[in-house]
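Lab meeting notes turned into a lecture example. A postdoc, R.K., suggested we walk through two folding results consecutively so the class can see how the record format repeats. The first protein's sequence and structure tokens come next.
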Amino acid sequence: MNLLQHGAAWALLAAALAACGPAATPSIDAHAAAHSAGTGAATGSARASVLGATLSRPWGLAFLPDGRMLVTQKEGTLVIVRADGSAVEAQVSGVPAVDSGGQGGLLDVTLDPDFASDPWVYLSYAESGDGGAGTALARGRLVGNALADVTVLWRQQPKVRGGNHFGSRIVFRADKTLYLTLGDRGQDSPSSPSAAHTQDPARSLGKVVRLNRDGSIPAGNPAFGTTAVPGLWSTGHRNIQGAALRPGSDELWVTEHGPRGGDELNRVLPGRNYGWPLASYGCPYSRSQSEPGCRPGGGTHAPMFEEPKTTWQPTSIAPSGLVFYSGDRWPEWRGQLFAGALAGASLWRIALDANGAVTVREEVPAVKALGKRIRDVEQGPDGWLYLLSDDGKIVRLER
């Protein structure tokens, strides 16, 4: 549903809130099951090499032009890792203070599209303030091993108590504006879904925003009404920790955490509502797994909300990190998605057709065998895939 039709949406919310009992299970359940049954043959030639660098709870990864890696660490440090991944070379000073409680900390990192001529580095992180904590976006120029001219560009509002669901990923578009993904900060529950938090456009909880790289609001964003937080692109998200642009477009794709089951892959379109917490294929944590009878709204999103492209159930994989492959090492994988998994301790390959429908979904055996919680996934300048694991390692996926 397009939120330009905002009044019609609110007229239907009461019905969605009441629809928490059993409902007809849509075809997405069978779709997810079918695509979970891959044999791994297409990814069987890949092997995983654990590199030598030892990190502390790494979260985000960006490659510098010379091949070295910038890596965020949850407790609030930014480090430079050698291009061969063998060791940490330096710690970068000047990083903003972070709130590392719970799931907070120093989160994503990315480079400005014009980094070669003006070396801005962008960071998302959890920030303390009046009322609690929220996600923030800052940037600084990388000068040697320090960030200079550090400026906070954007802050999630309101700040709230609790340590859950900060998101967050930063993705630049071709026009040099950026998407920032934001979690619901744990304010919404599948046990008692309401429209008070993620569904409220006046609060930047559970949203995607589109910003200019100086933090101002670009032209062309969708309208969400006069009370909306500036910059909104989409709403109804729970906790997006994977985000990537489809090659050749500005189309944002994301993976987001469900509650008990119901993790989602979504194509994020402007002005759309992705349902949380009024519709979800996940269930309250008091349940052992996701089943139709305990899903908010019965699970079904359409026609009121956008249906996910695929979901993971009956249990969650906790997806984190997402990349579209565009390299030469695996020509057969070009245009396909690779999604990390925390609880699932794996890497998923996801193929799409021209219309964005999922045609293949399978785990990569070499990564699954490691048993590591995969936090981020990036394509390196050498065409291999690089993964960050929660136990402090960098994994290179190669032939």
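The second example is placed directly after the first for contrast:
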Amino acid sequence: MLWIFIISLLDIFYMNPLVHVEVEPHVREQMLMKVNHVRKNGCRCGKRYMAPAGPVKWDETLYKSALSHALDMASNKFFAHYSSDGLNIGDRLEKIGYDWQVVGENLGEGQKSFDEVLEDWMQSYSHCVMLMNPKVDEMAVARYEKYWVQHFGKKMRR
């Protein structure tokens, strides 16, 4: 009975959208550097050339949302852009207070490293186009178990 209680507490902890598992600063900086390198140089997404785009910076709210979605997919054993309760990225971000103008989401499943998931995203037209979107200026990447979630955004002007 104690194990069931502990597992239930862990489920509650992991499903809370405000749960925060720290990303090592050097890991965060490496991910930003690699994404911004691609954005700075421009690239081909399928047959379409994507012009260079401005850099993105890390955003903690985007990270919390990405982590929450990765935890949701792992806990509920699914892989989709909609959460287990039917919310899309915009809905999920609004729910935790990110007042957005533009948002986007890349997902990965099973990759062993950020380099591997980034390469897969670059080989996928829609993921590549999202990564190169000049309208976004913030991002975050979370991984939980085999699930990768990359969130992009641009906050609403006040």
